Amino acid sequence: MSSCGPFPSASIGGILVRFEDVSLRYGGGPEVLGGVSFLLAPGSFHFMTGASGAGKSSLLSMIYLARKPSNGRIHLFDRDVAGLTRLEAARMRRKIGVVFQDFRLLDHLTALENVALPLKISGQRDEKVRHHVAELLAWVGLAEHLDSYPPTLSGGQKQRVAIARAVVGRPNLLLADEPTGNVDDRMAVRLLYLFEELNKLGTTIVIATHNDSLVARFDHPVVRLADSGVRVDRPGRGRA
Q1: Which run of H or E residues covers position 186?
Q2: Residue 157 within a domain
Q3: Residue 40 sits in a domain of what CATH number?
Q4: Residue 142 lies in a domain
Q5: Whether the predicted pLDDT of 101 surpasses 90
Q6: Phi, psi of 72 (to 5 degrees)
Q7: From 18's CA, which of 39, 72, 121, 229 has a CA 20 to 30 Å away?
Q8: For 13, left (φ over 0), alpha (ψ -120 to 50), or beta?
Q9: How big is the CA angle at 49 (ends 26 and 203), to the nearest 5 degrees?
Q10: Please, are residues 182 and 22 in contact by the beta-carbon 8 Å criterion?
Q11: Within a 10 A sphere around the Cβ of 84, how many other Cβ atoms?
């Protein structure tokens, strides 16, 4: 893929993500996250790390508005999300691409149709969509699986389809939850390069991962979750 690849350029201004003393608990259970505060600037690229159970997935779910915090305030795109109507929240989600751990592909659609879905929803022409999606799937090593259905794909192939679907619409914010968990090291690095290309065009990237060796290969800040709270390590500092 070229330096711009299949992505149109875009940019946004202002504060992108701000957490202010945010806590989360499920029902009457203990806090999953407590007193979390951090800021993500537009166009930034952050890894998010922490032990299993530290709350990485829960934190991402609050950013894409799937869960509400128990306490504290969250601002996205210069808005306090507590004041959003249901329609406003739905519109805001369209600016966010998400790579889920469980892929969430539609089994009755081909790989190409799954990836094309965000573009079709936005009203793009079919001929343009097919070329755009085919190029992206080829870049992630799935050129021979455009017409394959998810049940026939391996875990790693499904993961790459899910990643392609998340990035194809050039979201303002991309959240990826363990996006390299089912692929080999070579493909993991290739996928990180794809995220970097997207970031160069203005998309803010947050990648949750437990793969410290992969994090160490790339020069990006790291949001670290631990019992003591959240710490942001700058490139070259505090690496595992």
Answers
A1: helix 185-200
A2: no
A3: 3.40.50.300
A4: no
A5: no
A6: 90, 180
A7: 121
A8: beta
A9: 95
A10: no
A11: 15
| Dist CA 15 CA 41 (whole Å) | 6
pLDDT tens by residue, 126-162: 777 888 899 999 989 999 999 999 999 999 999 999 9
Calpha distance 40→15 (Å, rounded): 7
The single-letter code of the amino acid at 235 is P
In Å, how far are 72, 93, 157 from 136, measured between CA atoms?
39, 22, 13
Q: Which of 102, 95, 210 lies closest to 161 in space, CA to CA? A: 102
8 Å CB contact between 205 and 7: no
User: Distance between CA atoms of 175 and 31, rounded to whole angstroms?
Assistant: 22
Tokens of 222: 């790291």
Residue 163 CA to residue 88 CA, distance in Å, equals 25
In a domain, 160, yes or no: no
The 3-state DSSP composition of the chain as helix, strand, coil percent (nearest 5) reads 35, 25, 40
pTM: 0.85
The amino acid occupying position 151 is P
For residue range 22-67, list pLDDT tens digits in order: 999 888 888 888 889 999 999 999 999 988 888 899 999 999 999 9
Distance (Å, rounded) from C-alpha 109 to C-alpha 127?
Answer: 17
